[in-house]
Amino acid sequence: MAFLGLALDAESAVPTFLQLRAQLIDLVRSGALTPGTRIPTVRALAGELGIAPNTVAKAYRQLEEDGILETRGRNGSFISPQGGAAERKAQEAALAYAARVRQLGIPPEQALGYVEAALQGHSEPPWSAPGEAAP
């Protein structure tokens, strides 16, 4: 099964690397690939799609030049935060928050409640810990 349904048309007049690039961009735009998502290695994706690794590498290089991907050395390639500087900072903060919440074992629904309360401008937390009465 191809990564997130990627399907390349060998009969197309569009070069394979451009098909791959366009499909990955579509997955980012649709939200199927979110900032911070690790994508398969060049070799892994090439093997899965049955194409040459150089084809995947070319698509990845262009996506990196366009700011869609970022490569973190041996850690692999990831979807980059998108949009303007403020949006990228917000996405980076969200990624850090999500990582910390997972580390603390807080359920996503509870973590989202914290964010919603903070975005509504509450300076004091309007929530309570499980088993405590709300203030």
UniProtKB/TrEMBL annotation:
It comes from the Bacteria. The keyword Nucleotide-binding does not apply. SUPFAM superfamilies: Winged helix' DNA-binding domain. The keyword DNA-binding applies. Keywords: DNA-binding, Transcription, Transcription regulation. InterPro entries: Tscrpt_reg_HTH_GntR, WH-like_DNA-bd_sf, WH_DNA-bd_sf. Residues 14-82 form the HTH gntR-type domain. This is GntR family transcriptional regulator. It comes from Lysobacter korlensis. The lineage of its organism: Bacteria, Pseudomonadati, Pseudomonadota, Gammaproteobacteria, Lysobacterales.
